[in-house]
């Protein structure tokens, strides 16, 4: 249901992501060394060098273009300004300092954006949302939660980009 809406929603959501990224980037800072250490074996140097972090409460982020309509249809869509953290390509905005686990989750999204490009990330996110009606069930989120839980519970290091590429072939 509502799957037909996906192609209509991709351009405005793509524009929304790029707008938030550009707007927040100017106020965001590089990942501090102490936060980088626990995650550095899992991500490329390039990802960790490029990522920018903004901490603000509440987050100065408007709802995406379709949010109120989606909520009216009964979709579980949290307000971006009240989520713990949200990622726009390589800019992570969070309400308080992130612990290593939450940072890891958001960095998985940075990698997903890199592998897919913003537009394709937006397309997969929207179509996953229309399919499942719940943000936490979106395949891109499930992959991020899955890898985050592996990071939390398994001491064995792994290459996130490789895992992301594998998971995208699977979905
Ligand atoms: Zn996520």
Give a nutshell description of this structure:
This protein has 8 helices and 4 strands. It is globular, with a radius of gyration of 15 Å.
Percentage of residues in helical conformation: 40-55%
List of distinct ligands in this structure: zinc ion
Oligomerization state of this entry? single chain
Strand line-up in the sheet with most strands: 1-2-4-3
User: H/E element string?
Assistant: HEHHEHEEHHHH
Largest sheet, strands/sense/barrel: 4 strands, mixed
Task: Walk me through the structure.
This protein is α+β, with helices and mostly antiparallel strands and 171 residues long. It has one domain (3-170). 55% of the residues lie in helices and 8% in strands. It has a 4-stranded mixed sheet. The chain is globular, with a radius of gyration of 15 Å. The mean pLDDT is 92. Bound molecules: zinc ion.
Question: What are the salient characteristics of this protein?
Answer:
171 residues; alpha+beta; 4-stranded mixed β-sheet; 8 helices; 55% helix; globular; binds zinc ion
Write the layout of secondary structure elements.
Blueprint: H1 6-25, E1 29-30, H2 33-36, H3 45-50, E2 52-55, H4 67-72, E3 85-88, E4 91-94, H5 100-116, H6 118-132, H7 139-153, H8 160-170
Parallel strand pairs: 2-4
Antiparallel strand pairs: 1-2, 3-4
Helix pairs in contact: 1-6, 5-6, 5-7, 5-8
The chain binds zinc ion.
